[in-house]
Amino acid sequence: MNRVALRSLAFDWVCVLAMAIIGTNNHETDNGISGVLFVAAPFLIATTLSRVLMRATKKDETSVADGVTVVLFTVAIGMILRRFAFDRGTATAFVIVATVFLGITMLGWRGLMARRSTTK
Fold first, then answer.
1. N or C: which terminus of the chain has fewer CB atoms within 10 Å of its end residue's CB?
2. For the packed helices 3-26 and 92-118, what is the interaxial angle rounded to 10 degrees?
3. Tens digits of per-residue pLDDT, 47-77?
C-alpha cells in the first residue's frame, strides 16, 4: 500500500472509531478502550477488507464515488460480522444510524480532499 492508501484507510478507521466512541457514550455501555474496540472491531475489519478489495480492483478508494462502495461494504460486512462473529445485535435503528454516520463521515473527508485538490 502506498502512503495515500494508508492515510485514507486511517481516516476511515477514525470514522469507525468515532462512531463507536459516540455510540458507547450515548448508550452508557462500556466506553473504555476495550468496549469501544469491541464495538468498532467488526467495522474496522470490514473497512480493511473493503480497502483490500478496492486495491485489488484498482479502484480509487479516496474518490467520493468509490467511497460509496467502501461505506456500503463496511456497513454490510460490519453488520454481518457483528451479528455472527461477535454475537452482537443489529437492530434496524443501529443499521440506519451506522449507515448515515459512516456515510457522512467517510464520504465527508473524501469530499473535502477532492475539493482541496481542485482548488490548488
1. C
2. 140
3. 999 988 888 888 777 889 889 999 999 999 9
